[in-house]
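Input chain follows. Return structure tokens only.
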Amino acid sequence: MSSSLRRGRVLLKPLSELNVSAWRRVHAHFRDPEIAHLNGTPPSRMPLWLLKRVLRADSRRRDRESYGIFDVSGGEEHYIGTIELYDIRHDQATLGIIIGERSHWSRGFGPEAIGAILERAFGTLNLERVTLSTFGDNERAQAAFKKVGFHEKRRFLTGRGRVDVQMELSRWAWLEGASNTVSEHLAS
């Protein structure tokens, strides 16, 4: 796995570099019923030591890159969530993200963290496509994904009565969006 990634107000650090305070926040996020609902899982009942062991072991897999997300806008590092690329195979991967700190919801931290990991995905890892799945009732997440260029591929009703929204972003679309952003900045 790479070292830290930076974009805007966020710093992504490999899980192996998280301190005790950050791990306590990870644990709190995984136990939070609202966050669990948004991810389609029950709240975790694992003790911190076991959750840490499981996530660290997963992060060492060759088909996964997992990071803690830190807000660095105030000059200090404050842990706010996790992001990962998983099922990295051939030229594609799946994206997952949790902004667990409610104080950071709807403030643009998600798209900045996603942008940082997409730079790695389409640059260093040379992927052609990144996919993800979210739920229809998680409109905040859908807006964040669309903001960085993801588009909806399909929706379907799950066996549990929720609408699953599958989205994807190609390297071409990412690069096209990045060049448009640069052009907009140069024109202003």
